[in-house]
Amino acid sequence: MSKSLHIVEQKLEHIPHDKEGLRLWLRIVSCTQMVEQEIRTMLRDKFATTLPRFELLCALDRVPDGLTMGELSRWLMVTKGNVTGIAEKLSEDGFITRQPTPTDRRSFVVTLTAEGRALYKQMEESYETLLECLFVDVSPDESDLFTGVLAKVKDAVEQRRQEGEG
Amino acid sequence: MSKSLHIVEQKLEHIPHDKEGLRLWLRIVSCTQMVEQEIRTMLRDKFATTLPRFELLCALDRVPDGLTMGELSRWLMVTKGNVTGIAEKLSEDGFITRQPTPTDRRSFVVTLTAEGRALYKQMEESYETLLECLFVDVSPDESDLFTGVLAKVKDAVEQRRQEGEG
DNA sequence: AAATATTAATGTAAGCTTAAACCAATATAG
DNA sequence: CTATATTGGTTTAAGCTTACATTAATATTT
Predict the structure, then answer these.
(1) Which long-range contacts (CB under 8 A, 24 or more apart) does A82-88 make?
(2) If pLDDT is split at 50, 70 and 90, which confidence band does B1 have?
(3) In the structure, what pLDDT confidence band is assigned to residue B6 with cuts at 50, 70 and 90?
(4) In A19-87, where do the E strands start and end?
(5) Distance between CA atoms of B38 and B44, rounded to whole angstroms?
(6) B31 touches chain A (CB under 8 A)
(7) Is B115 on the interface with A (CB under 8 A)?
(8) Residue A52's closest CA among A15, A18, A78?
(9) Model pLDDT for residues A38-68, shown as the tens digit of each residue
């Protein structure tokens, strides 16, 4: 058994089976970290870039009309300040532009430049190929059920947040 | 529909259904980020601490004999340099200690102090309660299948890494 | 035994991330 | 209309994270 798989099993070894939520969570986290590491390595080796930069370009590619900083922040699920920093560098590098919005003078819309889109398209192929490769053994049925479980957990988070607000 | 659930659906909207790996991956990431955010907020609000610090204490609590820095690095799936920094502060704060190992003079074993263990036990309860709450709607069957899917993905990563080595 | 390679841990520089404070513009309330 | 609250975005300080280089000790080769 490989070193990392050994470690995650060792982590779970002494956790009682009635703590199924905890067990599941640890498994999700370790899987996520492994996949993310593969993506980071691929982006660094092939494109000399980082995951946050890639994700920002990816968001903009999906929305041709562009996104405001706040929308990017929500899309990427990171703080607004974080987006400011990453967008600044991508803008200096010529991959994105910011245009003022006519309706709100505080806000502006961020879009890909031609260079940004061209770069993204190159990366997209490697990215998607990698993911299809890693998920190839997951059947459609499994995929559906998996999605359902994730949705339940997300709902629970949502509900908890709404209760906290009230 | 809540703002964050709306965003993740919007992300998937224009992704073709034959890219099921990508779709699944984006769902996992968004779920993971949401749950992690809940944990971070809880740790900050209740214990004025951070997730990395908590995770290091958690690892040591699971292994009463302690772990070396390298073992901690593999357990937490972060770089050794990262562990050095976090362990340094926890040591200054009196929650962990480092003892030299008799067999290898380069290495030492990190263990919880009494204060560290006491602090961890307080946090552990809130942590586990939170997770059981978030995963409460997941049935045992779902849990098994979910675990199986995660294992398949991890296996794919493992295999990819072994191929890369060769 | 001496040379070489590997391993345990730390140091460094760069980049990411956050929470909170802040500013400016817009929206709401009285 | 004016006061107040909210919102869009940036800044700041602190902490996290990584990859890579380094140092010292252990293992392996020859």
Answers:
(1) A82/A52, A83/A56, A86/A52, A86/A53, A86/A56, A87/A56
(2) very low
(3) low
(4) 67-68
(5) 10
(6) yes
(7) no
(8) A78
(9) 999 999 999 999 999 999 999 999 999 999 9
Q: In chain B, positions 37-96, which contact chain A (CB-CB < 8 Å)?
A: 37-38, 59, 62, 74-75, 77
Chain B residue with Cα closest to A136: B21
Convert the pLDDT of each residue in B126-156 to its tens digit: 999 999 999 999 999 999 999 999 999 999 9
Backbone angles phi, psi at A24, to 5 degrees: -65, -45
- Are A75 and B6 in contact, with CB atoms under 8 Å apart? no
By Cβ distance, the residue of A14, A21, A35 closest to B157 is A35
CA distance linking residue B98 with residue B112, whole number of Å: 9
Angle between helices B20-47 and A20-47 (to 10 degrees): 120
Do the Cβ atoms of A142 and B160 come within 8 Å? no
Q: Which residue is nearest to nucleotide D18 (CA to C1')?
A: B79
Please state whether the predicted TM-score (pTM) of the whole model is above 0.85.
yes
**A80 CA to C23 C1' distance (Å):** 15
